[in-house]
């Protein structure tokens, strides 16, 4: 009786082992296609479908319950999938000719999706950690996407030529840490987007519509947010944030606009809005809880804002062409507002100290305003309406008040 029971137990054990085998399916239609599948572990699943000529696929799965699906339609496409760990999921779709994709997942429960629709597109996806997600969608020709995620619960999405079949776009995403999110959307030709995030809970979003645009976002710390929107051609935007809880927003509509934002510290906020052509904006903030707003509407406007300290606020609005503004704030709780409407107006504001206030309004042509505040709790107001006015305000000390009004 015991021997019968032992034999029955052996049969049950053998059935369990058999049920935990790996599964591989390869379907090839055409000439000169090549597929290699290597599976080590249990319950791994690989499906390769090749339709066309000279396509190559290499799948390597080592672990438990990994899933790989490769579909190649066209000629001379190449796909490599390497999964090490448990519960990883990869899907690669190549439709066209000479596309290349490489996916490397090392860890558990990572998810990767790659869709290349066109010719000569290139993708490389690297995910090391757990529960990371990568999505790459390439339409058109000669697009290049690189995604690298080190850590847990990171998300990266890349869309190139989406809906229009653009080409020659480049997207690079690097994320190191946990719970980071980066998105790149490129619609047009020869756009270049880069996002690097080191830390936790950072969010970066790049949206490019047009040709020859560059957008870069570097975030180093935790809970930082960067958004760059470009619509037009030959625009340049770079945002660098070091610290925690910083926010940057850049919107460029037009051609050949330039924006540089650098923030170091905690809870700093910057917004740059450029509408027109050949506008220039440079924002630098060092410290905590500083705030800057730059709004340029027209052509060839220039704005420089530098804040060093805490709780400083700067607002610059330029409406028209060839206006220039320079704002420097050093200290605590300084406030500067500059409004320029017209052509060829120039404003300079320097605040060194604490609790200083400056308000400059220039409407017309060729007006010049210089404000210097060195001390604490100084207040200056300048209003110039018309053409060719010149105002100089110098306040050295504390609690000084000045008002200038000029018109013609």
TrEMBL record:
Coiled coil: none annotated. Residues 185-194, 307-320 have a biased composition (Low complexity). Residues 1-19 form the signal peptide. One of its GO terms (cellular component) is pilus. Residues 26-52, 68-228, 287-328 are annotated as: Disordered. The keyword Secreted does not apply. The keyword Signal applies. InterPro entries: Curlin_rpt. This is Curlin associated repeat-containing protein. The lineage of its organism: Bacteria, Pseudomonadati, Bacteroidota, Flavobacteriia, Flavobacteriales.
